[in-house]
Amino acid sequence: MASLPFVILASSSPRRQQLLRQMGAEFMAISPDIDEGPLAGEEPLALVERLALGKALAVSPGRDNGVVLGSDTIVVLDGDILNKPADPAEARRMLERLSGRTHMVLTGFALVELESGRRHVDHERTEVTFRTIDEEEIEQYVASGAPLDKAGAYGIQDDFGAVFIERIAGDYYTVVGLPLTKVYMALRRIASGK
Questions:
Q1: Taking the CB of residue 118, how many other CB atoms lie within 10 A of it?
Q2: Domain locations in the chain?
């Protein structure tokens, strides 16, 4: 396995931490404190890239070696951005909208090399199709609390949330919250000095 630079993950997400472990990266996680709301008229792609970079820059001060990784994931349906639901009622409404439909998941990521200050910002998109889900399933999933910390109110990796998904077109890990291959390859380039 290729050696990777030390990563400072600008996230408290256990899913992103697991993905970094999966790629063999040594890391520490720090939760960034930034406003994650969209700017007026901001397109979804611009939003995920801006927030990913903003998170990375928020935890960079006072650190002088390694690479800071920021990431942001959103769900887009009919041009509407579905972020993390504020409460169970909003989670229920989101799941009702996603039922039987195809939506887009966008994950932006930013790498900030602390020694050089160089930045790498990129994204990945994946289409996800839900089967039709009934009210009882929605109620059961919302009652579990799982949807409340996830964009679009579901997790593809959740035991029960996974059964809503009929198919995906694109990178599975983008839906989990970090486009694994793109991030890994970018970290390898940094490690090799390219």
A1: 11
A2: 7-191
Is the pTM here over 0.85, yes or no? yes
The third-level CATH classification (topology) of the domain covering 7-191 is: Maf protein (3.90.950)
Letter string b/e over residues 67-95, b meaning 16 or more CB atoms within 10 A of that residue's CB = bbbbbbbbbbbeeebbbbbeeeebbbebb
What pLDDT is recorded for position 158? Answer: 78
**Helix, strand, or coil here: 185?**
helix
Q: Would you please indicate which residues are annotated as catalytic (active-site) residues?
A: 72
> HEC profile for 16-75?
HHHHHHHCCCCEEECCCCCCCCCCCCCCHHHHHHHHHHHHHHHHCCCCCCCEEEEEEEEE
